Amino acid sequence: MDVWSWLGDAFVSLIPPVLVGLLFWVIMRSILNADKTERKVYQKMEAEIRQARGSKAVSEQAPKGDKA
């Protein structure tokens, strides 16, 4: 078994873990983006409800702990 054959086998054996890692990254990114969007929409809805009730509207700040 020569060096090129060994390197080729090593490269081919790394393809499945890399693809699974990329798939995981894409799924987690979409989940986190959906959560971020949902938080913004919910915050806007709450502000509209408070304004409709005559209460002081909540400022457009992100909730504590939300870094996005």
> What structural category arises from helix and sheet content?
mainly alpha
Order of helices and strands: H
Alpha-carbon Rg, integer: 24 Å
Number of helices: 1
Which structural traits does this protein have?
68 residues; mainly alpha; 0% strand
Explain the overall architecture.
The protein has 68 residues and is mostly helical. The chain is 75% helix and 0% strand. The chain has a domain at 25-57. The chain contains one helix and no strands. It is rod-shaped and about 80 Å long.
Please write out the topology.
Elements: H1 3-53
Give me a quick take on this structure.
This protein has one helix and no strands. It is mostly helical.
